[in-house]
Specification:
The chain has 100 residues and is mainly alpha-helical. The protein contains three helices and no strands. The protein is elongated, with a radius of gyration of 30 Å.
């Protein structure tokens, strides 16, 4: 045991760990996970606007996908078949409700 002096290997490892931590923090700062230099207000505004953009993009994308699926089903003329299957399922469910 040394008296108050650290071993050279420990110091080098500590310096390497601190450099890795600094690089990770800088990457998080660049990607917007940490408050930017503009302050907390700007940070919250950017995060809020990003959330709105994500929500709108998801809604538009889902609308497009559902529209394409409906168009495909209509082209394949499967809608009446699907409607009959759903009607039969509803009848079965209603018939099952009355039984103990």
């Amino acid at each position: 045991m040394s008296s108050g002096h650290s071993e050279p290997g420990v110091s080098r490892e500590l310096i390497r760990t601190l450099r890795d931590l600094d690089a990770t923090l800088e990457q998080l700062r660049r990607e917007g996970f940490l408050a930017p230099a503009g302050g907390m207000g700007r940070f919250l505004l950017y995060r809020f606007l990003g959330g709105i953009a994500h929500g709108l993009g998801s809604a538009v994308g889902a609308t497009f996908v559902v529209g394409v699926l409906i168009a495909l089903v209509k082209q394949l003329q499967l809608l009446p078949v699907v409607g009959r299957v759903i009607a039969e399922l509803i009848q079965l469910a209603q018939a099952g409700v009355g039984q103990p």
